[in-house]
Design brief:
Elements lengths: L16 H14 L6 E3 H4 L2 E4 L5 E3 L4 E7 L9 H16 L5 E13 L10 H10 L5 E13 L19 H20 L6 E2 L2 H13 L20 E3 L7 E4 L3 E11 L7 H6 L6 E9 L2 H17 L5 H16 L4 E12 L2 H17 L3 E4 L4 H6 L13 E4 H7 L20 E5 L4 E4 L12 E5 L6 H11 L7 E6 L5 H6 L3 E3 L1 H4 L15 H13 L4 H14 L9 H4 L11 H5 L25 E5 L7 H18 L10 E6 L1 H4 L6 H13 L2 E7 L2 H5 L12 E6 L7 H4 L7 H9 L4 E6 L5 E5 L16 H10 L6 H12 L2
Parallel strand pairs: 17-22, 17-23, 18-20, 18-21, 19-20, 21-22
Antiparallel strand pairs: 1-8, 2-3, 3-4, 4-6, 4-7, 5-6, 5-11, 8-9, 9-10, 10-12, 10-13, 11-12, 12-14, 15-16, 15-25, 23-24, 24-25
Helix pairs in contact: 3-5, 3-12, 8-9, 16-17, 16-20, 26-27
Length: 802
């Protein structure tokens, strides 16, 4: 139940009879009788499109289209819902009387086409082919606002494209008014990421609207006659549907609202946009000027008072609206509403119609199937002919805000900062298809840092491995992982990556002093020496800075700790020189950073370090992690022209933040990685270990975009609700969901979705992500033994039931 219940809807038929009669009179004056066939070009009202995104109608009206990104309201608090409602309401109240808005929401059936996505790793491609068998097609929702100026009396109204037409004073005045209205919408609706349609996108939208199916068209800056249409329309004589006769025949039928509900809420539009059929909701809204609104309400009040069945409630409602109107808290609109449902067969269309009608009835509205006025409703989709929908009802701006909700429920995003595809697709718990991405949006370098919370045996490692695998579809993708207990060794090896275990560290030559003198190398070494020695006072910082300068003054082969130690002074007790002793070749940690050469590189797209033995060795963990991260920064291709992306995975993040000199570096890592087009995926076993960590009170949580939360029957509201901002319903899901379910929470918008992450349909390919100790040992024995070792390994796992 929506929290936005209003008593200000005008529910009684007597209030709309005058407008309806007036609309019918205008309709029969302006519209010719319906024909069995109609070529779109004969009646379509559009004249031409300009390169800067304006559309002109044949009658001289100027049009602008704004695409609105839908919001998933699942998981939002009442405070957040109220805030978004107010922003939509403020936008509607700001509309000038000279502008009409056509609000159009479309639910299209689209093919996932996931199998054709090109992967840059054969094992990942194989896994993708197995996974996408679960997904054939899905439904996606799009929302658009079409801003239309009033008609003007242009001499010889525009019928052909001419440069002079756009230069007339009237045309320029229209465009200025239109710009003002659009700017107000862009400002008030920023939470919906509005985007003005231009070029091919604008051309394609008009073509889609005309042809009744998704249609792509290149921008044509000339007369639109015979350009947009690719279909013929047919209305069978005596029938109750229409046909789009194009490359494929499509059928549609219309529903209109006859009797409104006593109250409005957000539920009607939300539920319509979840129906598993193709449909479009068309609304038209034009605001009454205040004086006309007051006059209209006075007439309705007088009529109601004299009506034989008048009652006090009816009169009180009108008086309440008059008071709010006088105070400027609401505005009054003329509103048109119609739903067009589609089907590739008549049976499919009829089934869609029944489901839509059911939803409307459940929301206490009464709908009727349109028969006589089908063609009129078709043309009412367009500017200039939008008044062909003669069913006009008065509506307050509050109620209209419910109808203009722009919902997108459980769909996700089809693009991200890494490229023009989602990372992967999951089924929602409700059965829909959710396109998963890490990022906040598809823009360049968007925030995508992710935290995964799940206990032992929850499936956390399997899910993370799968997501990393599917991210290999993006060009130039590189993955750096800080692993624990060999959890990612199978994934790394099966995807041809490099896995560096604890025993490999003894053989790997590492020498941070030999990093190239570029990309912040000197700043890094200053910070690194502070971590190494735990000497952070000003005097020691100056000593470190001077030593770093000396380091780069000598030949690269001579840059070693044992040669640089004298730059720090004698190793007296309590000095930085003494603190450095344990890192020299003769010291307890001498095996780590004293390589004759710096052999660490990131030529492989996947490099994973097993950090198990270092997680509790705080002296080592910080300097080692910082060095690995900086070396990756220097070697990875960050060039934007190469569209390179990268992911850093950190298991047991909470343990990395215990070192007081390394903890600030974690925030720095997150900031630098985002700036260079990457993201960090971190994992912890419990919410408590991160929310009670000093890291959480820093900038870490502010840089976090995505939470992936596994079920936890003992989830503490103190952690999940107060720290993660979960609602009571989201917490209930966490506490009661069965295995292989997760809650994905977007920190920037507070939207959430419940996903089914059961990967068993992958068959034996699921063992690409196995972290069982015996399976890891088997992989170590089979790895690289012959050309088909991967297939043999997967077959072994499947046969043994590992």
């Amino acid at each position: 139940m929506s929290i936005y219940l209003s008593a200000f809807y005008l529910p009684l038929s007597l209030l709309v009879l005058g407008l309806l009669a007036w609309g019918l009179w205008r309709y029969f004056r302006s519209y010719s009788p319906i024909k069995p066939f109609s070529r779109i070009e004969e009646k379509q009202p559009l004249s031409y499109i300009t390169g800067d995104g304006f559309t002109y109608t044949k009658g001289g009206q100027v049009v602008r289209i704004v695409e609105i990104q839908g919001r998933d309201y699942t998981g939002l608090s009442e405070e957040q819902l109220t805030g978004l409602f107010k922003k939509r309401h403020n936008w509607l109240r700001s509309l000038p009387a000279s502008i009409t808005v056509l609000s159009q929401s479309h639910r299209h059936r689209v093919s996932h086409d996931l199998e054709s996505v090109k992967f840059h790793n054969e094992q990942a491609a194989k896994i993708n082919r197995a996974w996408v068998r679960n997904f054939d097609e899905c439904f996606r929702t799009k929302h658009y606002l079409i801003f239309v100026t009033d008609k003007v009396d242009l001499i010889g109204q525009i019928s052909d494209f001419t440069d002079s037409a756009t230069e007339t004073g009237l045309s320029r005045g229209q465009r200025d008014a239109l710009d003002t209205a659009v700017d107000r919408a862009m400002t008030n609706l920023t939470d919906y990421r509005p985007r003005i349609l231009k070029g091919d996108d604008l051309m394609s939208y008009w073509a889609t609207l005309m042809n009744g199916e998704l249609t792509r068209k290149k921008l044509y800056e000339g007369s639109l006659e015979d350009v947009l249409a690719g279909t013929t329309l047919r209305w069978p004589k005596g029938g109750n549907h229409q046909e789009y006769l194009g490359s494929n025949t499509r059928y549609s039928a219309w529903l209109v609202l006859m009797v409104p509900a006593m109250e409005t809420s957000a539920d009607l539009i939300t539920r319509l946009m979840q129906i598993p059929f193709e449909l479009s909701v068309y609304q038209t809204a034009s605001i009454f000027e205040k004086q006309k609104a007051e006059s209209f309400l006075k007439d309705r009040y007088d009529s109601a008072r004299n009506f034989i069945n008048a009652n006090g409630t009816m009169l009180d409602d009108i008086e309440a609206i008059e008071d709010l109107l006088e105070q400027g808290e609401v505005a009054l609109f003329q509103h048109r509403f119609a739903v067009e449902v589609f089907g590739s067969t008549i049976d499919e269309m009829e089934n869609a119609l029944k489901e839509v009608n059911t939803v409307i009835s459940l929301e206490s509205f009464q709908a009727a199937r349109e028969t006589l006025n089908q063609e009129a409703l078709h043309w009412a989709k367009f500017p200039e002919t939008h008044s062909f929908n003669v069913r006009v009802k008065p509506m307050t701006s509050e109620n209209l805000s419910h109808f203009n909700l722009f919902p997108t429920v459980g769909e996700g995003s089809t693009r991200c900062s890494f490229g023009p595809h989602p990372v992967t697709t999951f089924k929602t718990v409700q059965g829909g298809d959710y396109s998963f991405i890490f990022h906040r949006h598809e823009g360049p370098k968007a925030t995508g840092h992710t935290l995964v919370v799940g206990g032992t045996e929850s499936g956390k490692t399997t899910l993370i491995s799968f997501l990393l695998s599917q991210a290999l579809k993006y060009k130039g993708m590189k993955i750096l992982s800080f692993d624990r207990l060999h959890g990612l060794e199978v994934f790394t090896s099966m995807h041809d990556g490099v896995y560096i275990s604890d025993s490999d560290f003894n053989q790997l030559q590492m020498n941070p002093l030999q990093v190239e003198d570029r990309g912040g190398a000197r700043e890094f070494l200053n910070t690194w020496f502070q971590m190494l020695t735990n000497c952070t006072d000003d005097d020691n910082k100056r000593a470190i800075s001077q030593a770093v300068v000396q380091n780069f003054d000598v030949a690269r082969a001579q840059r070693r700790l044992e040669n640089l130690q004298y730059a720090f002074g004698t190793p007296e007790p309590g000095t930085i020189g003494e603190a450095l002793q344990q890192w020299l070749p003769s010291g307890s940690y001498g095996d780590l950073f004293n390589g004759r050469r710096d052999a660490l590189d990131f030529e492989s797209p996947i490099v994973t370090f097993d950090m198990t033995n270092f997680l509790d060795a705080q002296d080592i963990l910080g300097p080692l992690t910082a060095y690995i991260f900086f070396k990756m920064q220097q070697t990875i291709d960050f060039g934007e022209e190469q569209n390179t992306g990268f992911i850093v995975f950190i298991d047991e993040l909470n343990k990395y933040s215990r070192n007081k000199t390394f903890a600030p570096y974690i925030d720095y890592m997150h900031s630098e990685i985002r700036k260079k087009g990457g993201l960090v995926v971190s994992a912890v076993q419990s919410a408590e270990t991160i929310v009670n960590n000093p890291l959480w009170d820093g900038t870490y949580k502010d840089n976090l975009e995505t939470l992936i939360l596994f079920p936890n029957p003992t989830a503490d509201p103190e952690h999940y609700c107060k720290k993660f901002n979960l609602t009571s319903s989201e917490l209930n899901f966490i506490q009661n969901a069965p295995p292989r379910r997760v809650l994905v929470k977007r920190m920037s918008t507070q939207e959430s979705v419940q996903l089914d992450i059961d990967l068993s349909s992958l068959g034996k390919d699921i063992y690409n992500f196995n972290s069982d100790r015996d399976v890891v040992r088997k992989l170590q024995n089979m790895r690289g033994t012959h050309a088909n070792w991967k297939d043999d390994f997967l077959s072994f796992c499947a046969g043994s039931g590992a």
